[in-house]
Amino acid sequence: MNVLITGGSGVLGRKLIESVLEKYKIIAIGKEYGRISETIRHHKNFKFYERDLTEIRSVQDFKITEPIDLIVHLAGAVSGSKLSEKDFFTINAESTKHLAALAKEKHSKAMLLASSVSVYGAQEEPIYTTSPTLGSTVYARSKIAAEEYLRNAGIPYSIFRIASVYGLSSKSFIQKLFSLYKKGFYPKIKNQSPKSIIHIEDLNLAILAWIERVLTGASIRPVYVISHPESVTIQQVIEEFKTHRKPRWGILGIPVFPIFIPIFDLFYKILRKWQGLPYHESPLGPLLHSIEAYSEESWRDLHLIPKWDLRKGTTQYK
């Protein structure tokens, strides 16, 4: 079986490739071949295509001649990237459209899109797989557009709406908090709402289970919400850090008052303009915006239970 994995040089892509390389022929797309380990590079089941998704305009631009049984689309511009709105949509949405066309051309069994719970946006009601997608950030809107392309492609598919992914080398809000924690402070936000998370190990297992379902002919759901059943707050994360790494000089919680947020946003917006970089949202966004979503049915369908709660997941942050 030939499995095409985009984002093959990313953290999740490399982990997934290591997990399936002995079982399937892997054709990976990525931007940085140099990040692939020597063990993987020279494996008989591995082939890598260095591609920039901003330069893909059609199926032909992928220049992939091998048959493709399955596509796992992990590549994408992440929230907070220093990209224009056009590049966000090119990388996240347009690439999905072209990959879906490739799946159709290759008669692939199915395609998986790594999306985000950010597509739901902030909602008062509990969020499930069927909840409306009300996300308003450029990242969320680009993922909503990607999902729409996939739904209309006329191929078997699944969308993984993934919570904030944490673990070493990730770029999650937990990683950002840890960077601040090591410097001796953290943002103290009053009435912080819980936020859904998922450890990279549990996410990897979920993708592996989905691949097995597709390639064995089992049914798949159109949408999965991939998150741990226990959501967390900033304060809970900080308390877990304290159990693993005692700050040398103590830890200071700096209050983030609502009145200061628009002032900080304006300052950051001016700074980005002076730097000649696009502005989409404040760096405080990932900390201030809390999306809590969970789907027991998604895990049941994959025959899995998440193993990495916050206590176990933060043991790596030492």
UniProtKB/TrEMBL annotation:
Q: Does the keyword Transmembrane helix apply?
A: yes
One Pfam family recorded for the sequence: Epimerase
* Domain of life the protein comes from: Bacteria
InterPro entries registered for this protein in UniProt: Epimerase_deHydtase (IPR001509), Lipid_A_modif_metabolic_enz (IPR050177), NAD(P)-bd_dom_sf (IPR036291)
The record, for Gene3D superfamilies, names:
NAD(P)-binding Rossmann-like Domain
The chain positions of domain NAD-dependent epimerase/dehydratase read 3-214
Key words, A-Z: Membrane, Transmembrane, Transmembrane helix
Entry's transmembrane regions: 249-268
Q: Is Translocase a UniProt keyword of this protein? A: no
Q: What name appears for this protein in its UniProt entry?
A: NAD-dependent epimerase/dehydratase domain-containing protein
Where does this protein come from, organism-wise?
Leptospira kobayashii
